[in-house]
Amino acid sequence: MAFAYDNRITLQKLEVFCTVIELGGFSRAAEHLYLAQPVVTAHVKSLAKRLDVQLMYRDGHRTRPTDAGERVYEWASDVLSNTRELVRDLDGLADGARGSVAVSASMSVGSYLLPPVLSQIREQRPAAEITLYVSDPEGAIANVQSGASDFAVIVGEGTTDLSTLKREVVGREEVVLVAAPDFRPETESITIAELRSLPLVSSPRAHIRRELIDRQLLAEGVTPENIVIELGHPEAMKAATIEGLGACLLFRSAVWREVELGALRMIRLEDSNLWAPLSTFVRKNKRLSPLQSQALEAVRTLAAGDGRLQPAEEAGAEVAG
Predict the structure, then answer these.
(1) 93 and 143 fall within a common domain
(2) pLDDT at res. 99
C-alpha cells in the first residue's frame, strides 16, 4: 500500500517526537517539555498512526527509534529548525529595524567580545529582539544545526561535520600573558622558553582554551611544567591571577579591562605571538534576515577601533564547507 501523508500532523507532535528521540525516553521528554508523560506518549502514538508506521521500540530499559523512526526524526528536525528560523525572520524582512536574531557563542566570545556589539545593535534598533546563548563550542554549533540560533561564533575551528554548515574564519583572538602588578615586578618580558618554569594559572587539560594554547606552545617546543591551579572559567582564572598565585595565558578580550584598570599587567612574550582563530558558523540553507546579516557583519568588523581582534584578512580568513 502506498504511503499517504496526513496533513493533520502538527508541529507540536513533531517537537514531542524529536524530544523523545534526543533525550532517550518519554519521561525525560515529558519533564523537559513540562507535559505529563501520558500526553507525550499520546502525541507519539498519534504521529505513528497518522504516518502509519512504527516509530519506536523497546530495547531493554531504553526506547529507541525504528528505521522509519530515524527517517521521520531527520525530516521532523529539519521542519522544526526551518520553522524556528522562519518565526525569527518574518518581522525582519524589510530593513533590519525589527525582527530577531539569536546568536550562540563559546564562553570567552560570549562573555567578552559579543555583549558590547550586540548591545550597540539593540540601542540602534529598539524594536529588535536579540538573544545570546553561551556554551561550549560544540553546543554553540549544535544550536545552529537545530535552528535554535541563526549563527554561532566560537574561538577555534570546531570539530563538527560541516556537511550542513558554512564555516568562516573571520579573525583571531590574541593570547596574552598577564600577572598581578606585584608578581615578579621586575619581569616586563620573557621568552617563550621561560614559560616552562613560570608558575601558571591554567584552564583544565580537556578545556578547548587549554587545548588551543597548548597546541601552539607545543609547536614552539614548550610544555609548561609549573601549573599551580586549573580553573574552568576566565573569571576564576583572573581572580587567582590577581591574587598573585601565578601568571596566566588568556585571550586579550577577557583581560583588557583589568589591564586598563591596573588590576593586571601584561608580560610581553619576546619571541612569540600566540593566538586562536575566531570562527562563525551558519547553516548552508539559511537565508539571513537583514537584522541577522547586520549582526554577522558586526562580528566580522569587531576589531574596528579597539585592536582586541585581528581583522579577518590578517588572520587568513577562509570559508570551509
Answers:
(1) yes
(2) 79
